[in-house]
# Entry
Amino acid sequence: MAQSIGGGEAELPEDVLARIRRARRVSVLTGAGISAESGIPTFRGAGGIWDKYDFRKLATPEGFREDPVLAWEWYRLRQREIWKARPNPAHETIAEMEMHFERFDVITQNIDGMHARAGSRNVIELHGNIWRARCVRDGTVIELDAPVEDIPPLCQCGSLLRPDVVWFGEQLPERALEIASEAASASDAMLVVGTSAVVHPAASLPLLTKKNGGLVVEMNLEETDLTPYADLSIFGPAGEVMPALWRRAAFPERFMTEHPIIANR
Ligand code: OAD
# Structure
């Protein structure tokens, strides 16, 4: 049954913690909200990217064809923003968790590369990565190790490079989606962190976990389209809620010593 609580460590229900503790296979699905506390803006909500910028010009193949310079100016701006940012405790907790389970998949809609920077090794990127560019003519992929300087960047063959990210109206990388769907279906638990859960197919992945009897725990500042389907929704900033959840799931004895009265409740 769906249950919603605030982010306080003491409120976390023991039955959910026990299921995470016992899980053999765990997946995490992340969205822009996990990087918000690193200073990277989200897409939706007050002050969100799509409030300020026109996605048609910046995040569609048609927009890019019309004005590649404008699109690249925006991606350069975002690269510079991400370049300065650092992974936060939510990314770090997820990287730490990977070592504790038989299988652990980090499925992300984010293109910022923060999970890898935090130390996660098994990251499935559904929407591409801002640190790669791709030749529009032959698909050659180029790794970028810093924000682009000259705009628009060109491939060695002289054709335009585009950001290697998924735009509106484009298919997700087939193999990544296949791996993510398999992970979601086979997971004993999925943690969904900082996504509005409105962009599909990513938003449907937790439902695969649920359909197969797995636990779905959502962490967000507010209710989302997933909230009615989640076993538990924890409302609070990911950088606080994620470490709190993991502390209590992984080290229950420590919590019981520090909070004997709450723990015995
Ligand atoms: P959104 O911007 O749609 O949603 C961000 C979510 O994070 C919202 O539900 C916020 O409430 C939540 N949030 C914000 N700050 C938070 C915090 N500190 N802790 C926890 N939650 C927080 O971002 P996505 O769901 O990732 O796609 O958006 C999905 C896709 O839509 C993106 O990958 C992008 C976008 O258009 C493409 O560009 C293809």
Notes: Residues 68-84 form the longest helix (17 residues). The chain has a mean pLDDT of 94. The pocket of 2'-O-acetyl adenosine-5-diphosphoribose is lined by residues 31-33, 36-37, 42-45, 48, 59, 109, 127, 166, 194-196, 199, 219-222, 224, 237-238 (CB under 6 Å). The chain has two domains: 1-40+91-127+174-265, 43-84+128-165.
